[in-house]
Write a structure and sequence with these properties.
The protein is mainly beta and about 325 residues long. It is built from no helices and 25 strands.
Length: about 325
Amino acid sequence: MRKEFIFEKDVGFESCHASTLVELPDGDILAAWFGGKEEGDPSVKIWMSRRSASGWSKPAIVAQEDGVPCWNPVLYLDAKQRVWLFYKAGPNPEQWSGIYVISTDGGQTWGEKNHLPAGLLGPIKNKPITLSSGEILCGTSVESWRAWTCWAEIIHPRTSEWTRHGPIAVKGENYGLIQPTLWELEPQHVRAFMRSTRRIGYICRADSLDGGRTWFPAEPTDLPNPNAGIDAVKMADGRVALAYNPTSRGRTPLSLAVSADGPPYGGWRKVLDLETERGEFSYPAIIQGRKGDLHVTYTWKRDRIAYAVVAQNDLAK
């Protein structure tokens, strides 16, 4: 495993969190995160950096909103090789609005800002997935003082229509799940893993058999979750890699686990720890590159974003 920081300190913000990444067709990596004085402060903007053969570029502001903070960017490369940058803006998660911009030149320039209508937020933390049908499935969630609940949003590429489906929740429980990460086990069979409150204490799982339109009730897995973000990716060999904090409290360690060979993914094996020292190591984002390696970004003590590359050999069965 190779680890590095995307930037050092004193780059224009005091605190940063909630990174995302995508591999471009030329092999470069784009990463984005929110940064400012502190989470929720009106100074918080969306920042971006590109990793090429010469290393990471100097972080630059890619999105901002007047008078309110930005939150939780999400990068996604679609079938037309366009890069989408989704993010949220508003004084707090209960008052978020969803926004996205699209780049047709690998993140060099961005098109006009698109504000989603009330009730749609776009992918809330983790990357969308392209289904076998060609539809784009986004895992989203809504937080209020009375309810934390997950949903699925579908972007229909031929019509550009958005539809919202769900909720995805533990039966009889409307307060407890946010930030789904998704993968397609087989055509139209989608699985969601979700962050949970400490009262539940475990990553929860729910399945859809119709491409995210309807969902079975969510159930806790045996994977601990301390109310912290997770992310997963289905790899080319059919297994799934999961980045998460395997503890009931705190946000350390940050670890990587790999599923059993294929459906129904009944067991998980921890492969390695990304971080084990005291402090906050959280909100991982994970993708598999074209060469088979896993690429992970995550929050490093709220003042830097770390980047790790995990070679295929480290994922041996």
